[in-house]
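INFO batch 0412 | record 1 of 1 | parsing
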Amino acid sequence: MAEQEQRATDEEIRIAAEMVLEARYPIALTGAGMSVESGIPPFRGPGGLWTKYGEPPMNGFQRFLADPKKAWEERLSKRNDELFKPLSVARPNPGHHALAELEQLGILRFVITQNVDDLHRQAGQQSLAEIHGNWTLIRCLDCTKRFHADAISLEVLPPVCPRCGGMLKADTVSFGEPIPTDVLNQCAEHSARADLVIVAGTSATVYPAAGFALEVKQRGGTLIEVNLYDSEITRICDVSLRGGAAEVLPRLVSAIGAIRKASLS
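INFO prediction complete | emitting tokens
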């Protein structure tokens, strides 16, 4: 029997909005559910790319280092495949815009995303860590400087960093590749200050991203979940809002605005 889809009530949204406003340093953790709502296929589960075609090699980074020219050629040959084509046409959904609006209001302090789709940036999010990289960027393995793909010539592969001469790789983190230190440091810094996390479109089971949210909860902080169905973390969340991020997060922002307006009247 299929799991029945539920919808967060207005009262649940109001309670969550009050929690966000009471928090000193709210942050958010987002995952694949938000990408799916923008038309990007998931990797796992029904209809997932890995479910259909199998998981990529678990030693992808080691294979890159062994033959970076070949790895670059393989990546470039896939620019119009079932993953990259949706990434190129996807646009931010109302959930992305809602988080950006919360930042503009001075409420949301930071976003950690597991998504590589660039959609938070496109929505205007400024304080952001893309823990698995960004598909539109190229990163130097030596100095970690990132460049937009259009700024780097790919006539000679592998390309070299114009800043330090190091080897360039797609910014997306491969299997077997360490998360870049600069990104981990950002996540650690903001999660250490956070007292509330909005977990949207993810079950918070993939590490190290999940660890940052759970760490806040373990310190006595608040977890607000936004997800279509119960997840592995639902039982420890203070509020679990049923529905997609594209529908729930704008409602949350509206409720926050209403509470703020009422407090001033």
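INFO post-check: The mean pLDDT is 91.
INFO record closed
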